[in-house]
From TrEMBL, chains A, B:
Residues noted as binding FAD in the record, renumbered to the chain: 138, 177
Keywords attached to this entry: FAD, Fatty acid metabolism, Flavoprotein, Lipid metabolism, Oxidoreductase, Peroxisome
A GO term for molecular function: FAD binding
Name by which UniProt lists this protein: Acyl-coenzyme A oxidase
Length: 664, 664
């Protein structure tokens, strides 16, 4: 593909079949094939260029995104792409746009909460993009606390309409993506008021802009909420503000799958169970976990390749210096992130299965697994997004000074990724939800209630509360059973300790609140266990291809043991392992780093990312970093002229001591 | 000052004298007074406006910075500001500019490495800004490894000149701030070559641009290296690339305080000790520690105030919701950062003293403390900048979605701050230097060598290696002696364990390299001990003012105990404390959070930051967040028109299904 390959010597070292690993990473040959095709389609089309993003003004940036979104849709239609292909194509375009919310939130909300007639009407339009929709939930004053939203939807029995209204400044919708400048419609969440009675928050389909001239409809004020973190990053998105002044919509635009308002203004529940709504949430969060593995693997790919290119110190007799990837500190920061990328990939894959499973159960009116599934997805969303955001920034630092340049791709990747820690549930708030579920589960221990899914391990509470680890050698730490037992015991003991401490408080609510920092840690321990155990499941299953299993075992070990090291206090204070065993774990970890080292570049090649998608000079496939960095620098607008704009007004008078009379 | 004060109820709760704390924070009444005056001077002058930074193009942004720098200099001259005042004024202008490098690196380099005649000539020009200088050390291929720089300075005895040359692409100077577009001169680091012999890297004063027309001099190629992390952030700085094609400078432009080249081309050492050079390094790193406390306190100020304004969940009977600062998870994330800001402030103050002390000693030809001082400043630079970068981002997350807006000030603060982890020594590389010093110190234990300064505790190795903590109650954890003993024992035991493991390796270098991840942790433990012990020194000294001591004690406890919690594995595995004592520490920590809570807003008011300096709507002194956020949003250029640029070309054809014929 490339002419020179500065990383060829690294690729030759690999001890496994990279092509086979690409399939494992993608999930299936089919998934690989679709991703591969779509990513090349995007990369080879100059219309999808993105290397100029950092220097565009907000308006140029935004306009360019509108162009790309339209062009992508045109291609999707022309090529008759399947839904799967289209979504991959949008993914590889790699630029937040209103289409993300249209396809990712607006349509799923209608699907999940709308009636069949509503599907018929609105989804038909939406699928063809004859309308563009966004998801307008958050307000200036309320995000996490959805039940506290202030926008009202008051039923007017005279006209058979709802009156949508923003009674306060803080009730202004604030943040919805695609709202600010593009969406024609929105699913608006508002308090349903009938006859003066407040029935809580419900969803309504509201047309925002005229389909003729795009002007906001009467009574509607909309704008963009301004610049966000980073240069390009999320600024390609028109997160918006929206106020309603008594805007009327027909009654049938309330999403009525679960609850309905009749012509007479009666509020009734349909026979569709409310729990169905959770299905959407599980779906959305599962995509977030899968996005986490993409974002993290992308950063890791850049950092691994550049760490193999970059040499610093350690030259002997004028020979080449040491590749920084050979420094043990570099490895101990980088390889756990490489392992996490794989771990999140596999747990994301499992979540996809879980979503299908729960959907089937819901359709069969079986709700028993729902709380567990809900806690599990909430927790994994929190865990993987936090680790990914931190991991991207660590990868940036691992690239030294050059990682601070936009041309490294990493600053913008961080800036565009990091809101994932906040949207779809603030990560701390989510951990507390998991903790609540854990406390409930712990309180039922011994009651004979069957524990399922990711809580099944708690069934063995008696053993896990008192067991001591039998690890005797560094080698033992490779055995899944030892790892699992340590993680299970730690998670359970932390949860049980919290429950005990809560029971000492005047009342459970007060106790929960006082101990919430500890509870969040217990929730993290539970979630880490899930990721570890799904990674172990993966390597215990069928994996074809030369050397793949060995590599994945090493990565799984690195993932688990680096967590053990990081959270050592918890493992030791709960008596799950001894200091001696911890030292053995560290020893094993070092040997696993050495094992992964010669395979590192091949392990990131397995992500199969194009240079276009990576968008990073440091992460180029061919490792030809320095000439390209140099070339790129000259493209900055500041280099348009040798003497900068402002020299004559502001620099020369200063040098010549003539500031007194200068106009500044 | 302000008309409404939404935070008045918080301020009324404070249990200490805020005005007195302002003095303690500033370091002295004089320092407070200067800072206060300069910050108001900047804040009240519309020429220093900075709220529009996020939407300017690179060129506009840069030009505006040139204007501000010139205007600041004009004011400095007009008002005959002292050096101290001038430097504060530049600080509060709060925009990276070429002047930072001119005053902060170019002048100190000449001061530290130049002869008296060189001072006479160059400093005179530089102090008046008749020349503008930068610090050109780093190259495309070498940053951390300064000894590996490739630029050459070859002595030509015929003409009595040095020929400065860039022999390779990777020898291009890359990163120097102020270089790209502004500097007329640079201190250039290059390999000194005499008669074919390489004498290693030395500094040279090189004129880069004509003082007449600002064009690069013959043989010199200069440009800007392009966009960096963030919007405004560090993009106001012209970090540059520079290549020399056999550029000649007179012999007397080599910085010759320590080594000289004679007219005959002889390389001679002056009688000035080489160690003097370290003085500059200590000076620069001390300012970085003090900047860390500024940046962190600024982020904490925003997050504390906004957490007191923001309410979410927990409304009872329609009353107001809970202030998010009352959630224990919020406190456990936020208050350790508040405590760290104070801790870094005090350790920075102490470093200032240390710098003066070492300078005096150097002048008296006393070098014995130098290795310890060097390790200590390197370590503290690494520790405080890492914690500050992470802390700023945590503060941003603590503000939920709104923290992601540039108008919160936090994204840009992070982007502009974070390179401090990389420049002036990559933080990992620095920790390894500290570790090397620690290993040397450990190897001398028992040799009778007197240990001084921050290593004095190792003198008590025998006790610290086997002591067990006597903590019996949560209350005990407030006693400085218990805290110190635990931190000393942990630091020493980690260092000794590393030394033992190194000694098992085939050779010390190999051992050091294999264990370097553990060594970096040992270095962190040593540095945390320094910060803790300086905080304790501070509260054990004189502190006037109602309630101040109580607050600082609480913060000191929070700083130490939150570290103990975070690194619990190290305290437990080395047997410094027991799990039971760890639980008591956690209990104490919770009660300290409760103690600080009513004082939190006052504790950030004590930083005395103006709203201009904070640059954050969420952190406004008056807490009037929502109306101002709303107002600010409309200023985005995207809101110039209701229908966005690009609608007619890219949105309408899509909605109308007319993409096939659209030009995209
Ligand atoms: C880039 C981006 C895109 C978005 N897109 C959309 C969109 O398309 N549509 C939409 O409707 N919204 C959107 N949002 C809004 C997003 O969903 C909210 O920001 C998110 O739900 C967090 O809520 P918040 O901002 O109110 O945070 P807050 O709840 O105000 O959080 C502030 C702090 O309080 C803490 N906290 C809050 N409650 C508790 C509690 N009970 N216990 C302990 N701690 C607590 C949090 O942990 C956090 O530290 C978007 C946001 C962003 C940043
Ligand atoms: C905003 C900014 C401003 C700057 N301003 C200036 C300026 O004015 N003048 C100037 O001369 N320079 C400047 N620099 C350059 C800066 O000093 C260097 O970037 C810095 O010294 C780090 O070196 P590096 O980039 O070569 O990192 P590298 O050394 O390449 O680091 C890459 C990775 O390798 C690791 N590594 C390297 N060596 C070792 C080792 N021996 N052991 C273990 N790990 C190792 C590092 O930890 C890091 O993870 C600036 C940089 C930035 C980002
Ligand atoms: Ca004792």
């Amino acid at each position: 593909m490339e002419e020179v390959d500065h990383l060829a010597h690294e690729r030759n070292k690999a001890q496994f079949d990279v092509e086979a690993m690409k399939i494992v990473w993608a999930g299936s040959r089919h998934a690989f094939e679709v991703s591969d095709r779509m990513s090349r389609l995007v990369a080879s089309d100059p219309a999808f260029r993105k290397d100029n993003r950092a220097t565009l003004s907000r308006k140029e940036l935004f306009k360019n995104t509108l162009r790309k979104a339209a062009y992508a849709w045109k291609r999707i239609v022309e090529l008759r792409l399947s839904e799967e292909e289209a979504s991959k194509l949008r993914f590889f375009v790699d630029e937040p746009a209103y289409t993300d919310l249209h396809w990712g939130m607006f349509i799923p909300a209608i699907k999940g909460q709308g009636t069949d007639e509503q599907h018929q009407k609105w989804l038909t339009l939406a699928y063809k993009m004859q309308i563009i929709g966004c998801y307008a939930q958050t307000e200036l004053g309320h995000g996490s606390n959805v039940q506290g939203l202030e926008t009202t939807a008051t039923f007017d029995p005279k006209s058979d309409e709802f009156i949508i209204h923003s009674p306060t400044l803080t009730s202004s919708k604030w943040w919805p993506g695609g709202l600010g400048k593009v969406s024609t419609h929105a699913v608006v969440y508002a308090r349903l008021i009938i006859d003066g009675r407040d029935h809580g928050v419900h969803g309504f389909i509201v047309q925002l802009r005229s389909l003729d001239d795009h002007l906001p409809l009467p009574g509607i004020t909309i704008g963009d909420i301004g610049m966000k973190f980073g240069n390009g990053a999320y600024n390609t998105m028109d997160n918006g503000v929206l106020q309603f002044n008594h805007v009327r919509i027909p009654r049938n635009q309330m999403l009525m799958r679960v609850s309905q308002v009749t012509r007479e203004g009666k509020y009734v529940q349909s026979d569709v169970p409310r729990q169905l709504v959770y299905g959407t949430m599980v779906y959305v969060r599962q995509t977030i976990v899968s996005d986490a593995s993409c974002a993290l693997s992308r950063a890791v790919c850049v950092a691994v390749r550049y760490s193999a290119v970059r040499r610093q110190f350690g030259s002997q007799d004028g020979g080449p210096e040491t590749q920084v990837i050979d420094y043990k500190t570099q490895q101990s920061r980088l390889f756990p992130l490489l392992a996490s990328a794989y771990a999140f990939r596999f747990v994301g894959e499992w979540l996809k299965w879980l979503y299908m499973d729960v959907t089937k159960r819901l359709q069969a009116n079986e709700f028993s697994t729902l709380p567990e599934v809900h806690a599990c997805t909430a927790g994994l969303k929190s865990l993987t997004t936090t680790a990914t955001a931190d991991g991207i920034e660590e990868c940036r630092k691992l690239c030294g000074g050059h990682g601070y340049l936009c041309s490294s791709g990493l600053p913008e990747l961080f800036a565009v990724y990091v809101p994932a820690c906040t949207y779809e549930g603030d990560n701390t708030v989510l951990l507390l939800q998991v903790a609540r579920f854990l406390m409930k589960t712990v309180s039922q221990l011994g009651s004979g209630k069957q524990l399922v899914g990711t809580t099944a391990y708690m069934q063995r509470a008696e053993h896990l509360m008192q067991c001591t680890s039998d690890v005797r050698s560094a080698e033992d730490w490779l055995k899944p059973s030892f790892i699992l037992e340590a993680f299970e015991a730690r998670a359970l003991r932390l949860a049980v300790a919290c429950a005990k401490n809560i029971s000492k408080a005047p009342n459970p609510e007060e106790g929960f609140s006082q101990l919430s920092a500890d509870l969040a840690e217990a929730a993290v321990a539970h979630c880490q266990l899930i990721v570890v155990s799904k990674f172990i499941d993966k390597i215990q299953g069928d994996i074809d291809g030369m050397g793949l299993k060995e590599q994945l075992q090493a990565l799984c070990g690195i993932y688990a043991l680096s967590l053990l090291h990081k959270h050592l206090g918890e493992f030791l204070s709960t008596g799950c392992i001894t200091p001696k065993q911890a030292a053995l774990a560290n020893e094993k970890l070092r040997s696993l780093y050495a094992k992964v080292r010669p395979n590192a570049v091949a392990l990131v090649d397995a992500f199969n990312y194009t240079d276009h998608f990576l968008g990073s000079i440091l992460g180029r496939y061919d490792g030809n970093v320095y000439p390209k960095l140099y070339e790129e620098a000259w493209k900055d607008p500041l280099n348009d002229s040798v003497v900068p704009d402002g020299y004559h007004e502001y620099v020369r008078p200063l040098l010549k001591q003539q500031l007194r009379t200068a106009k500044l």
